[in-house]
Methionine aminopeptidase 2
Amino acid sequence: MATEIMNNEVRVGENEESEASNGIEKLEISNGTDEVSENSSSMQKDEDGVTAEVAKKKKKKNKSKKKKEPLKQTDPPSIPVVELFPSREFPEGEIQQYKDDNLWRTTSEEKRDLERFEKPKYNAVRQAAEVHRQVRKYIRSILKPGMLMTDLCETLENTVRKLISENGLQAGIAFPTGCSLNWVAAHWTPNSGDKTVLEYDDVMKLDFGTHIDGNIVDCAFTVAFNPMYDPLLEASREATNTGIKEAGIDVRLCDIGAAIQEVMESYEVEINGKVFQVKSIRNLNGHSIGPYQIHAGKSVPIVKGGEQTKMEEGEFYAIETFASTGKGYVREDLECSHYMKNFDAGHIPLRLPRAKQLLATINKNFSTLAFCRRYLDRLGETKYLMALKNLCDVGIVQPYPPLCDIKGSYVSQFEHTILLRPTCKEVISRGDDY
């Protein structure tokens, strides 16, 4: 500021002091105004900066408050189950405590340690169970008379493939969808071209399986639109629940069968004016389940008698019951649709090149999991019936024809998969639907 005043005095001259003084005043006023405007503009900038910063902080707070809502399953289901559980921890099934001499297991630290060691396997099978629950819930909502059975099975199986993120032998369908009708108890699924339609008076057993890394969930239920069949369905449902309740470590398989039969045969059903006592089908059983092995060697009878073998810690079981209005006995009948490579089949030389090719397809896509002819068609296999028969004849593949009541009577089925954990019994497939 001082340098500017001195320069102004030199320009004005010595004899014009008043003008110089006026000039000084003007300069002082002018420069004072500039300084104020500069200060005010800088203050404005500071205020704007502070305002912007505050706004940013508020935005950040608002963003942090807004948590991402968990994904919800669509209708129809299309989101893989792994995406619905970002933690990759899947829900437990229904927990039941052991009875009597095994009550101590609940609080045993040693048994808890064993369970922690097995947690990855438990989590895998729980994922398969969650897929099963969501699929069967959806299928129940769309079932109605007039549906083509082929369409029903393909809808169900394609939904499983989506929800389980099908990946070769690591994740997928465990066995073909059984949709056996009326007197057919099990092992029926439509072959390609079948035109069977679901009717109002049908009793349908819907039996399907899912797996993760060979850990199989086997679960079934019966559908009947006509309320006349309700007592028949109730008989097999309650018998299955009884079998689950009685199952446990060191329990004899024959004792479970006796308890199931007692409950089953306490029911009667009136069909078209005629009363029938409900009977357990004596040559059908539940079974133990192993990795990639739907029938792992032990059978759970549904009548008294049978094996004295005991259940053991860590085993998986399918507790399933079949209620009949007939003689309580089934036999193989009708066209075969279900097949499975024998779990213990060693190397057997094959002469037919086509049989070798088909076996390679089976090994790659199914290994020892069950499959059906529709699955081979889906993979692009054609003209394979002779090759398939050859694989069955030499004992590499086992056919599983439909099992039919010998009297042509109605049959109902219910089934759950249970795990005999070291500390408790987990009904892995249990849901709120039944």
Remarks:
- Residues 1-33 have pLDDT under 50 and may be disordered.
- Residues 17-65 form the longest helix (49 residues).
